[in-house]
Amino acid sequence: MTDLLRPLTEEDLPLLTGDDVGFDYFGPRAPRLSVPAPDLNDQGGFAVVDVSGRLVGSVSWVWQRWGPNVQSRNPMIGIWLSAPARGRGLGTTAQRQLVDLFFRHTAVNRVEAHTDVENIAEQRALEKVGFTREGTTRGAQWRDGGYRDGHLYSILRNEWQTATA
Fold this sequence. Notes:
- By secondary structure, this protein is α+β, with helices and mostly antiparallel strands.
- Helix content is 21%, strand content 35%.
- The protein has helices spanning 90-105, 120-129, 157-164, and strands at 5-6, 44-49, 55-65, 73-81, 110-116, 132-143, 146-156.
- The protein has a seven-stranded mixed beta sheet.
- Helix 1 crosses helix 2.
- It is globular.
């Protein structure tokens, strides 16, 4: 499988335009001026490239905590792909590679993802990777003038080992 992830560069920033379907519209934002770090132990991100090496999007993560100790934290991943890159399996592959990086290079037990209830394409991609839908987060996300429901997904380390064995 071709690696679709690489560190982001400053030259990538103008090409990562963000939302064109409404799921990422969180209001006006200043343009990105710095590149997210590819450090898996902190908030960060990677570029997503196609098999020819052309930039087609990005994956990122933030850390969530379900308890007071460091062992209770886990990354919540997200993805954005340009319109021409969608529907070709690149998002599924990129998210699969990101999950693999977390389970190979950190001690996390859980990787999460959250998506709008109407974002069916992302739900399908997450399920193809092996994520389980855990439930609906009612009114959890403020976007485009209102609170939106979302679906919370996760995959556990032992499920990943089973899925990739």
